[in-house]
Amino acid sequence: xxxxxxxxxxxxxxxxxxxxxxxxxxxxxxxxxxxxxxxxxxxxxxxxxxxxxxxxxxxxxxxxxxxxxxxxxxxxxxxxxxxxxxxxxxxxxxxxxxxxxxxxxxxxxxxxxxxxxxxxxxxxxxxxxxxxxxxxxxxxxxxxxxxxxxxxxxxxxxxxxxxxxxxxxxxxxxxxxxxxxxxxxxxxxxxxxxxxxxxxxxxxxxxxxxxxxxxxxxxxxxxxxxxxxxxxxxxxxxxxxxxxxxxxxxxxxxxxxxxxxxxxxxxxxxxxxxxxxxxxxxxxxxxxxxxxxxxxxxxxxxxxxxxxxxxxxxxxxxxxxxxxxxxxxxxxxxxxxxxxxxxxxxxxxxxxxxxxxxxxxxxxxxxxxxxxxxxxxxxxxxxxxxxxxxxxxxxxxxxxxxxxxxxxxxxxxxxxxxxxxxxxxxxxxxxxxxxxxxxxxxxxxxxxxxxxxxxxxxxxxxxxxxxx
Length: 468
Description:
Layout: H1 17-23, H2 26-29, H3 33-49, H4 55-73, H5 86-98, H6 100-103, H7 111-147, E1 152-157, E2 160-166, H8 167-192, E3 194-195, H9 211-217, E4 222-223, H10 227-232, H11 235-261, E5 269-271, H12 289-313, H13 326-349, E6 351-353, H14 355-362, H15 369-378, H16 383-400, H17 409-413, H18 429-435, H19 444-458
Parallel strand pairs: 3-4
Antiparallel strand pairs: 1-2, 5-6
Helix pairs in contact: 3-4, 3-7, 3-9, 4-5, 7-8, 7-13, 7-19, 8-11, 8-19, 11-12, 11-13, 12-13, 15-16
């Protein structure tokens, strides 16, 4: 038996089965059920407040919706493809359960403002959850930085040895990146935190409603000021997925480095066997597949951002069915980043740093050369001249195959008479680290303060459980 369509009054033929299959969205938008029911309860409360339904009808509606929610949570609710989407599935079940009172729920509401509401509620919840997951990863990076405080590694530019830095300082760089990601999510929530309910299909309603009351019940800061914009706006989806793209880009950068660092040529880190996989043919292999998959999934999230922008760029106002596809993109992008954040935090916690290999690497590449140039600056040598002098000294060290710190004083004086015995206090990675002074640098005293700062800041940041 064909399902009667709630919009079927003007139609003379049943919807073709192929059309039902092609146009349905309940196979993916079912996960909005919690927000749809939450929004419907608030809407019913407002309708009763405005005397558009009775208090008894409101109570019956709320009770029926609560029962449906319980059934969904228990896995006992059947979502039907013939009813198109999550909204019609829940409304149909409500009408079957409570009769005419259920038919009044859609008063002064359209699926256009209904889906816009559900998606805003979902995105707001996901952004808060994502912020918590970012905090977990930050905590693991800070813990690792504290554990390895004092360990020195070569810093890189162009993947070439550049200057010595503390491993802690390196790890805290990612903590800073992830903090910016959190603030972007928070900013996104500020802009999306307006209720579209009351816009109805696109023009509003002639009925005496109170959208501000509904917005207050749902925790919004206000109501969308233009009904056409309210139902056609998906900027918050684009902005949220951009935030996700930034997060996964930062994760991918860390993954790229660690993939390189666990290679035998570097061996800076050792990832627990529990977070690696092997080869089907080469028995000796230990592959960083988790890191590679996170790096690979970044392209998937970027693709969803492009998909949303492309979806919206040619749409006339106000609602168009094309917008059904926004959920495919935003749901998968959110799931992908959540899963990546969770597994990366675990992997970080189960990775150790190889101090011996890092120390050996610091002996290569003349990474104390900049410190020597700054030593000359302190002797009143113009920096560009100091740069040239040190370049010549490095060339000589390459010729005689020695490190800067091993060059005799006479060897230094051959290039600049201002160099004295105190030059050796500037050379060597330990002296470099000890002599850093600038704010935000890898100076041990500053890095230690930042570890303390982040420990305190993150101590109250706990992720919320995803209830989708």
